[in-house]
Amino acid sequence: MSFLIDCSPGAWLKALRTSVAVLAGAFFLAVPLAQADDPGAPSGDGVQPTFVEGNPTCSDYGGYEFKINYPADGVFEGGDHPDGPLRVEIDVYNTPDGQVFDWTALNGLVQNLVVKGGPNANLFAYGDPGDDMDTLLHSPVNPNNGKYYGLSHISFCYTPGAPDIEVEKDCGTGQFIEDGTKVRYEIIADISNESSGDIDLYNVEVMEDAVDGDTSCSLTSVKLNGVDVPGLTLPMTLTGGWDDVPGFQGANALAAGDTINLGIQCDSESPVGPNTVSTRATEEPGEDPATDAADTDSSTSVCQDPRNAGPNVAVVKDCADPIISLVEVTLDDASTALAVQKCARISVFNLGGEAVTAELSDTDIPELSSPVSLGTLLANDGAPGGDDEFSAVYCYLPDMPTGDAIQLGDDPVEWTVFTGDQSDLFLAALFSNVASVLAEGVFSGISDVQSGEAHCSICYSNDENLPAACPDPDEVFPDPDDPL
User: Fold this and answer.
1) What stretch of H or E contains 427?
2) pLDDT per residue over 236-254, tens digit each?
3) Is residue 458 very low, low, confident or very high in pLDDT (cuts 50, 70, 90)?
4) What is the phi/psi pair of residue 16, to 5°?
5) What is the separation, in whole angstroms, between the first and last Cα of the chain?
6) 123's torsion region: left (phi>0), alpha (psi -120 to 50) or beta?
7) Which of 205, 238, 374, 420 could form a disulfide with 358 if both were Cys (CB 3.0 to 4.6 A apart)?
8) Contact 313, 439 (CB under 8 A)
């Protein structure tokens, strides 16, 4: 349409002014201004701010406050929390939407953050336990230009960070080493920086209390979050006191959230049982954990001993070759005579994985009438001979026969046997004495008692046609406990 209907002088100027006014009104109707209570976009962490009228403080939200007026780039420290101040780093910069800032708490956690700009403020709520950093925070939107108000002040509602070092230890079942005379334990100790806030820890130390006169321990591996720490000289002997954890001394920090994985190997001559790994660290590189430890923690676990079955020994007693012989003996009147000598071979075997100390006894053999020490029998190595077994021949003069004549079935031949015990028919047909061994695990202290019996015939007949040999006692009187 046309606004130029009146052709009188000045009418065209009046019509032009009217058109401009109409167009301007149409523009403002089409593009409305920002609302007066618009908090704007969420932060970089996705926290949507809440518009708050006026000038709120942390006391409105039940927290302690650190207020920074006219924020600028830098590191700031302050606050009214009774446990200490908050240290925070701020980076302020401009965007097409207006002034924003990023923040990082260096020693604590922030539950709420108030951003004041213009007549009102934005509340960024992080909840419990809080957050330690965020980006793109801002004040409310200025309705006059659609941009964020300039920053007037910001208030951190916080709790101070606290150093927290924690250790978790695991010790499984040990394994026998050095021929069964020692046990080796493989221990895993995980040391974690669980500090609240972004707190690094320095000068990490460890103490393994298993170290004593019977037990030696060494640090065999050091990892950070499961990855080997390079450039270390391992293994490292542990003293039983506080030892440096290599790779985490001086300026080499254990960052918050990271974990050191320690491999500890302990060799012991006696059961370790429950034992404890402790750790401590400092907040600053130049501090000494002995006087400036920021935190200390300990973890105890039980190292299991490989002794479920205890020692395992066996005794074998055989008839020697020859079984009997004639030897010269001196009588009480200094004369000499021939006597019957019986010989038996006694062997003791360590069948287990633990070394044992052993004592051998045999009441029928004078030399063994009292237990005789065999020393240490090492763990079984799977091969014949060696230090895991003992074998020797023992000869003695048996007593005169006291047994009755024994007839074998319908055979008229009767055998008189050399024996001191007629109470058991099985024992009556032979020289049947028993060798016993008492074994004790050198590590576990558990005892094992085993015995071996030799069935050795020595006899004479009332028949002039003496057989060529005595009957086999095992055939004449079979062992009732032998399934064969």
Assistant:
1) helix 425-428
2) 999 999 999 999 999 999 9
3) low
4) -65, -45
5) 128
6) beta
7) 374
8) yes
Identify the structural domains of the chain with CATH numbers, from first to last: 50-160 (no CATH), 165-303 (2.60.40.740), 313-476 (no CATH)
Which tens digits make up the pLDDT trace of 350-362? 888 888 999 999 9
Q: How far apart are CA 187 and CA 264, in angstroms?
A: 5
Predicted local distance difference test score (pLDDT) of residue 400: 58
Tokens read off for 54:
């006026």
Looking at the DSSP bridge assignments, the partners of residue 165 are 193
| 3-class SS string, the chain | CCCCCCCCCCHHHHHHHHHHHHHHHHHHHHCCCCCCCCCCCCCCCCCCCEEECCCCCHHHHCCEEEEEECCCCEEEEECCCCCCCEEEEEEEEEECCEEEEEEEECCEEEEEEEEEECCEEEEEECCCCCECEEEEECCCECCCCCCECCCCEEEEEEEECCCCEEEEEEECECEEECCCCEEEEEEEEEEEECCCCCCCEEEEEEEECCCCCCEEEEEEEEEECCEECCCCCCCEECCCCCEECCCCCCCCCECCCCEEEEEEEEEECCCCEEEEEEEEEECCCCCCHHHHCCEEEEEEEEEECCCCCCCCEEEEEEEEEEEEEEEEEECCCCCEEEEEEEEEEEEEEECCCCCEEEEEECCCCHHHCCCEEEEEECCCCCCCCCCCEEEEEEEECCCCCCCCEEECCCCCCEEEECCCCCCCHHHHCCECCEEEEEEEECCCCCEEEEEEECCECCEEECCCCCCCCCCCHHHHCCCCCCCC
Amino acid at 265: Q
Amino acid at 336: T
Unique residue bearing structure tokens 């953050």? 113
